[in-house]
Amino acid sequence: MNFYMPAKVYSEENCVMNHAVELAALGTRALIVTGKSSARRCGAFADVTQALEKYGVSWVEFAEVEENPSVETIMRARKVGCKVEADFVIGIGGGSPMDAAKAVALMMRHPDEDWEYLYDKTAETSTVPIAEIPTTAGTGSEVTAVSVLTRHDKHVKGSIPHKIFANLALIDGKYVSAAPTRILANTTMDALCHLYESYIHSKATDYSRMCAEYGIKVWARSKDVILGRREATAEDYQNMMNASCMAGMAIAHTATSIPHALSYRLTYSAHMAHGKACGYFLAGYLREADPIDVGRILVLAGFTSIDALEDYYVTTCGRDEVPMEILEQTVEEVLGNEGKRKMPPFPVDEAVLRRIAGI
Ligand code: NAP
Ligand code: FE
Predict the structure, then answer these.
(1) Last residue of a domain, one of 122, 150, 174
(2) CA dist., res. 62 & res. 236, Å (int)
(3) N or C: which end of the chain has fewer CB within 10 A?
């Protein structure tokens, strides 16, 4: 058993400005990695550039990270970073820019290597320093060592083998307050999947469950907001971000489980948003698990039953019809991956996977 979470986390209002000294101390020129526009719209980009400028640190922007970032995007960002001689990376955004920032930091530290380095299990993993600033309340990428990338050459999406933690995570709920309901629903569903999958996992320990259990309690505080039953407060947004961060700490120790494993094909081939795709399989996963464990974590989130959780998913994320061939394909792919089949604390065969997938 070990517990290792080396990212320094600050979580509070005006977090970036409050800790500008530590952010600026990471280097002399930052490559700021973002998605198309939300980093600017939510105010995080302005806070970061102001914080850097206050301490004389220059910056260059790479604002081209797409959802489910591709290896090609990482290599383009590395080129920009190396050309301007940036010496650290700041990821601002949802999981896509934050995951991209980790991979870019790895490749900037190894400027002569080509893209295959990302997938080289024997390669050395040092990076230039990394700060992560979440603007969704879902992935917890600011505290996980995972970078999930899309490989168009193989038509797949998955984690790279390198384990890369950020040095600094700056969490401010106000950034997520600008997000539309759909993004809030999908990303908080991702966080719930992390919490539940980590709890019901063959690698769960008392320490990982400490993060998961408390994360579920914090997650539950803003459930009514996602359901549209009341207006969100600033505290709700901070709670959503904190739940996502605690969920990240939980999966940093256990990894995710079958719902995530099955979800990647839905995102790649049916273009379903990540959190929604994971949530698609969550109730099915819980139905296979130890009812005592499941009962405990349902109560912690305020669900009376697995069916109530399923209703919540349908109400908040919507349940799309997924083409049968995609469901068949994802079951087959996970069945063929022994590592993934060993993630749950119960045996997984084809029948179990088919029940979880609802086919
Ligand atoms: P995302 O893919 O980063 O972003 C989804 C959309 O939300 C984008 O259109 C983005 O716009 C927008 N957006 C982000 N923040 C916003 C805000 N504050 N207001 C309005 N719009 C906003 O979404 P995500 O669900 O956070 O991340 C999903 C990715 O993370 C997937 O690739 C998934 O596999 C990965 N993931 C990683 C981990 C991990 O441990 N590292 C865990 C789970 C999932 P812009 O394009 O304009 O930014
Ligand atoms: Fe996820």
Answers:
(1) 174
(2) 30
(3) N
